[in-house]
Every structure is written in structure tokens, then in C-alpha cells.
Design goal:
The protein is an alpha/beta fold. The chain contains 4 helices and 7 strands. It has a 7-stranded mixed β-sheet with strand order 2-1-7-6-5-4-3, covered by helices on one side. The longest helix has 14 residues. The chain is globular.
């Protein structure tokens, strides 16, 4: 999700509570705070000597140990106010990919991308997902692309089926 898409989604649902699902049915606690917003410029060289550059917006979520047991989540309105204040101080690249940085006692620190969002009851649920590392120069490095394995009905392709 691009930063502009996040802002559009937040603006459309300001009356809702803002929840983050970092694994299926696992949510950042209601005691979370937005503790940092990073405007990151990536300037990279991959293993095949290919160069690339892009921007990312990384929003850090932190669960306050002083507020464990809190039941009310931050409102979308409040989160948007925080992000708007950040944008006045350091303007966002609205075309940058947005990620959320998060960890807890059982989930290692990760930068999670927005996979989807859902409106449930009076909540805007931002569904986060992990993006695995990958080789960007597979062809040059001699790494075959993974092919999808298609299974077929055994009766059709068994040696005695007559279809082969």
C-alpha cells in the first residue's frame, strides 16, 4: 500500500478504532503508540550488481508496558492527527510504500507491509504481512524460478488410465 492510499483509507474512516493484525487473529495491543515515523530512502545494489532506489514510509508501533490491559484502541482520527503533524514537520512521499514496524515478546521486530484492510464493527483493521527476503537477480545468479506444482487427479494420469 502506498502512503497516499493509507491516508485515503484513514480519512474515510476517522470515526473508527484503529487495529493492526500482525498475524492471523493476532492484534497489536490496545496499548500501542505510534512512536516514530521514518521517511526512508533506499539506494541499493543487489547480488547481480543491479541498482535500484525507492522511498518507504515506516510507521513504528510500540506497546506501552504502563498500559497493559487497556481495552480502547487509538481512534483513526487520533492516528491521522499524529501522521498529519509528522507530515507538516517532514513531508511524506505519498508514492512511497508504507510499512509498519512492530515487535512484542513473542514476535521479533519486523517491517510489515499492508496486505489489506477490513471494516469490522466500528473498527478499521489494518492487516499486516511479512515479506520474505528474496534474490532479485535470480536469472543472473543461476537460481531457477520456483514453479507452481500442479497436482492432478491420479485416476486420469495413472499408467493404466489410457490418457498418457
Amino acid at each position: 500500500m502506498k502512503t497516499q492510499e493509507l491516508f485515503n483509507t484513514l480519512q474515510a474512516h476517522q470515526d473508527k478504532s484503529l487495529l493492526f493484525e500482525y498475524l492471523p487473529n493476532a492484534f497489536v495491543g490496545a496499548n500501542y503508540h505510534i512512536t516514530e515515523v521514518k521517511h526512508v530512502k533506499i539506494d541499493s545494489v543487489d547480488c547481480g550488481a543491479g541498482t535500484d532506489a525507492w522511498n518507504e514510509t515506516i510507521i513504528q508501533l510500540w506497546e506501552s508496558p504502563k498500559e497493559i490491559g487497556k481495552r480502547e484502541y487509538m481512534t483513526v482520527f487520533k492516528a491521522l492527527a499524529i501522521l498529519n503533524k509528522v507530515g507538516r514537520m517532514k513531508p511524506f512521499d505519498m508514492d512511497a510504500e508504507v510499512k509498519f514496524e512492530y515487535s512484542n515478546a513473542t514476535f521479533n521486530t519486523a517491517q510489515l507491509f499492508v496486505n489489506d484492510f477490513e471494516i469490522r464493527d466500528n473498527n478499521l483493521i489494518v492487516k499486516l504481512a511479512i515479506e520474505k527476503t528474496d534474490c532479485k537477480a535470480k536469472e543472473l545468479c543461476g537460481i531457477p524460478e520456483e514453479k507452481e506444482v500442479v497436482t492432478s487427479d491420479a485416476s486420469c494420469c495413472s499408467p493404466s488410465s489410457g490418457c498418457c
